[in-house]
Amino acid sequence: MAVFKIGKVILRSLFKKPATLMYPIKPREWQERTRGHIEINESDCILCGICAKRCPTLAIDVDKAGRTWTIERMLCIQCGACAENCPKKCLLMKPDYTSPDVVKVTDTFNIPEAEKKKEKASGGSGGAPVCDRETCIYCGICAKQCPCNAITVDRKEKTWEVDENVCISCGICVEKCPKDSLKID
Prior knowledge:
Layout: H1 2-14, E1 37-40, H2 50-54, E2 60-63, E3 68-72, H3 81-85, E4 91-94, E5 106-110, H4 113-121, E6 129-131, H5 141-145, E7 151-154, E8 159-162, H6 172-176, E9 182-184
Antiparallel strand pairs: 1-4, 2-3, 3-5, 6-9, 7-8
């Protein structure tokens, strides 16, 4: 009786499609919302550090002085928080996974200084924010959201200042202003 059951399974397996893919021969088809690994477009990165602050596993490290962006691939959980919060949209979630390895992979990318200067010179989102003092209510939300602490707001004195040497022109302050009083110069 058991022989007939095994024979039935064998015959069914012979005439069915395989349950697994022939991976090296037939590549996997990725679904639209598949999360894989983070890639960076170095020429667009402004080293604001928002990706590192938003990363729940602290897999990303931004070194402004050394002009490097580093990700520890084994710590990254592919949540996409860094890509979603990047003000310049230089981080992308690619649908393919990182290759398995026996050592922990840490990728370090050098962010070129020349590209950043060229972007500011051409007028592409390069200036510091400017405040319209007539519509500003001096709430301080822009100062709280600034990743570089470049904005100071004094509600009592009704003053608003930006340190242009510290400002990275990420545009978060403009986005978060409730009265639309800020604009990038």
